[in-house]
What does this fold into?
Amino acid sequence: MKIGFTLNGKNTFIDVDAARRVIDVLREDLEMTGTKEGCGTGECGACTILVNSESRLACLMVAAQLEGAEVTTIEGIERDGRLHPLQKAFVEHGAIQCGFCTPGMVMASIDLLSRNPEPTQAEIREGISGNLCRCTGYQKIVEAVAAAAAAKEKDGLP
Amino acid sequence: MKEPENGEIERAGYDIGKTAHRADAYAKVTGREKYAADYYDGEFLWAGVKRAGVPHAALTGIHAEDARALPGVIAVLTHHDIPGENRIGIIRKNQPVLADTRIRHSGEAVALVLAENRETLKDALNRITLDYEALPGVFSVEEALKETSPRIHEDNPEGNVVKAVAVETGDSAKAFNECDAVVEGVFEVPAQEHAYLETESGWAYQGEDGTYVIVASTQTPFRDCFEIAPVLGIDPAGIRVIAPYLGGAFGGKDGITVQCLLALAVLHSRGRPVKMWWDREESFLAGVKRLSAKMHYRLGAKNDGEFHALECRLYYDGGAYSPLGGEIMTLGAEHAGCAYRIPNVSIKGWCVYTNNPVGGPFRGFGVPQVTAAMEQMVDMAAQRLGIDPLAIRLKNAVRKGDRNCLGVTLTNSTGAVECLEKMSSHPLWKGRAAWKEEAGPFKVRGVGVACMAHAMGYPPMVADEARAKIELTVEGKIRVYAGVVDMGQGNASTYAQIAGYVLGQDASAMELVLPDTARTLPSGSSSASRTTYTYGNALIEAARSLEKAIIKAACERVPGSVAEGFLFLPGKVRHTPTGRELLLEELAAFMDDSARVTTGYFKMPVVREKLDAIYMGPHLIFSYGAHLVYVEVDELTGQVDVARYLAVTDAGRVINPQVFAQQIEGAVAQGMGYALTEDFKVRKGRIVTRDLSTYIIPTSMDIPAIDSVPVEIDEETGPFGLKGAGEIGMSGPLPAIANAVSDACGTRVFRAPMTGEAVYGALIRKKEEGTVL
Amino acid sequence: MTTVYRPGSLDEFWDMREKYGEALVFAGGTDLFVKLRALNKYPPVLIGLAGVKELQSIEELSGAVFIGAHATHTRLLSHPRIREHFPVLASALRSLGSPPIRNMGTIGGNICTASPAGDVLPPLYVLGAQVELRKKDGSRRVPIREFILGPGTTALTDGELLSGVWLKKEDSFTIHHFEKVGQRKALAIAVASLAALVTTTETGIVEKARFAWGSVGPTVVTSQDAEDALVGLPLGLKALQSIVPIVERSVSPIDDVRASAAYRKALAGNLVVRLAGRGREPLRA
Ligand SMILES: Cc1cc2nc3c(=O)[nH]c(=O)nc-3n(C[C@H](O)[C@H](O)[C@H](O)COP(=O)(O)OP(=O)(O)OC[C@H]3O[C@@H](n4cnc5c(N)ncnc54)[C@H](O)[C@@H]3O)c2cc1C
Ligand code: FES
Ligand code: FES
It folds into this structure.
């Protein structure tokens, strides 16, 4: 099936089995390996991407669902070579250990902050509750998201 | 090794004891970092494994014709296709790469398939059928130890026992009679799944020179070469293992997972690279688990709270093969009395074979099991004697110069007491009574503590050594060849920090080469709380040699200068008397290639006394910790909510506070899962919790804020005073939470995890029996 | 090879449905794709409902609210009508899965999956929801309790589609209560759950009560007896405890990997007792 969509701002055309998982399209066909797979069943969130600005699990989507969609992956959130405020906060606050959950965590946090720009600690915990992290105990991730939210406030960024 | 004491040379850039952002953070947060699972280059093939699906059987036939006939299938390999030895194992070489005559657990690998794509691979695996005669299985330690039970390894002279150890100090039989109070308990802890986010994966090909190159998510690249080579029937020099950053490991990638299978696959890949990536279910089925254990404890104390006698009987289920099961149990036995001074001790431990999933290393090795038991015993003794749980720990905790339960004199830094004291002055300790008062309707609150010790490094019979290598590149960068894998804990970054500090460089001047048996030097595994200690010491030596070499070159460039006149600055050295600056790049050009590369070696010190106290010898240096937890129990559901957590740790001096806190917080979270929800259930050898929807690890909503406080006691043998911090945090949560639940409910749950159902059951029993423990 | 169609309207959907009898329908895919992966068997044709315009609306029509089958959990949660009139549903939705699962999963998918642990179901039972089922040539409305027949089975007939759910506004209940007991606080399948609607007098006497339990039987369990027994009593510990035996008789839980039947039975009763802590305060989600 021929499918056209926008991937990180670029028009993208693929010709794949319509039921091919989006995670495989991204990682194997398009060599965008930033999006990770940790379970394939929706339980871990490592494959979180944004589809039309909302978080989606790439392991539970088929290629046909991409048609006409605007897709953002971890590779597409830097602007002019500068880290997204959430990426920056993750680095600065030590929210990254093995890093395998990190791309999904960042994408989930973008979804959270777009709905709720000033989340409480509890709301942050809820916002990333679909993303398992086995390394950090979540504490530094929560701190990073809070810091990114505060920084956005201050800079008046969208 | 002390901080290098060349005070004459000033430093800029990296500092010790200050947070430096991790060197891997940028590549990871942008998705650029390439893990073993991220290779899809060229015309690669997918490899996958047919697994037995039955726990114990005689294998009589493998039917692969249908699979072979499938278009897109390149090869189906069985034990017949193994050119070398079909047995692997670190201590006991008894695990087949592909089963030949016997199946010993449901995850046993039987056939290996190479296919053009993943769909074909799955299809082919489904078409392979096995002929076998089911054998009666052994599924518990009790059964394994029965004379009449089937033998899992026919040639094991010890029957189903992998290893048995005994420790006797003093005269425990007599000592129990001298005690004023004796408490007793039987504790059970479950098997635990590592559940790293990156499942086992790798990529392999044959290099132009004929070498088999294996890029794998492994903690042990150097040891892997020696395991893979005999399987292929070649010299280890013909194998190159590369370990990129791992997506988590925690012990579960200590040893062979995909490596041998990938190497075999490459023999039949017709020159194409091969990829293998276990899915989550396969990782659960075939990966190693923390050994479940059953522990009988008896602790005797005097009226004033002084511990006088301890007796422990420890039973660890090693599963079908035991890559390190005997050693895991042994470390448990060594730690059975935790951080206490007990003069009369009788500890016996057994690790046995069963037809359960293979047991293996997991953060803490065998220590979380015994700490769970011992630290509950301590609370039970305190309660019996009417002594405060913190006071009784302070009274008995080992101090420097004491003998521990094995009779070994603790000659190195020993911060158990300092950890407990720090806890006693913390607001969470002081505010505990007030907090408990405020429980809402149907809630009861409790507070619990635990104190832990964890040995650093390998036991004395295995040299714990590292060889560091460092280079001034022609571009003027400092390149550290990290010999020990970074499985996520950030040791590679700490290596950069250490070398950068010694050489006055900042992050921009540093480069890292990750473990690669062709480029870095053998430095042991990423495990045993040794990664930063052992390699860090070796690296300091290497960096100091390089420092000398660079200054020597600088002296030659500045006529009449002496070594003392030079100051290292990022990217350059300055001759302070003349103000002349020399770029490192410039100096590199003038240095011999051999002078630009230096190495360092370090071997961890070991005990000299009591070497025969236990199998492989006892440890010398320990990290310590004291944990405090607030829990709230729901009386209607039994559910335990962890509200606050404090972890005080003596892991020596802290080089990078952020990386240190990461280790503690992460270990505590894994410990909370172990305490409350994680239960790797196996019924008759078949896995019940087969995926992440049934094996329950904590989410962000299940873990509270964790306060991590270091007690920075200098460990004089450590790099800048450091000791290992990776495992110590793991052992505390289970007993601390168990003690808090007991405090809240007035009854104890002796089997972990303390699920809602388990705690509810205990509450009901207490109501029915009116018993209070 | 699987073909995937994504119709834009019901008309288009019926055409495809007719052409591909063996096609499977998916909404968010959070149940179906997990199942297909486990079976490792993909049908020749999949039809996605995300584009079917008639299934998207959430509207208020003369005292009732219609929720299109493809409304995602996230959309429902942020919808003022739902939060205002059906806090019991909102509270259940908030506990369902995780944020990405709620972004993808739909109310229609949750209903059609007909899992005894489906979090949307107990609230729909107490709210007396009716599901709207459509065929090419007509539609019918069925009360939710008649639609769900057993674990994984519904009254959907061949060629029928669930088009939406009708909820009567239930502002007369002073207490909207939902509690789920799971093995952890997020990404948790119900070990047992309770949806409750209660109205009390000014003095706290129960005037009416409706209960529905999840995960304690092959389908959602209700108990007219328990509800009746509570009416006329003051909403407090004593009254609630008095109906526990009735509740325990009404449920028929099973043992599974998550919990034992005995624990589930105890939870069913105890979750009702929790209402004692709610006093007379109206609970708003
Ligand atoms: C990680 C994870 C966690 C989860 N947690 C929870 C939880 O906590 N609570 C819970 O209740 N559920 C949970 N679920 C299950 C699932 O997410 C929900 O049931 C969800 O509401 C299903 O909706 P969907 O649109 O994704 O369904 P789909 O998967 O698209 O469809 C499910 C079934 O319904 C059929 N169907 C869908 N729409 C229609 C329609 N309009 N007409 C006829 N048939 C239709 C499909 O053919 C399919 O058989 C979880 C799932 C995952 C993967
Ligand atoms: S890989 Fe998609 S949720 Fe785990
Ligand atoms: S950092 Fe390793 S899983 Fe989150």
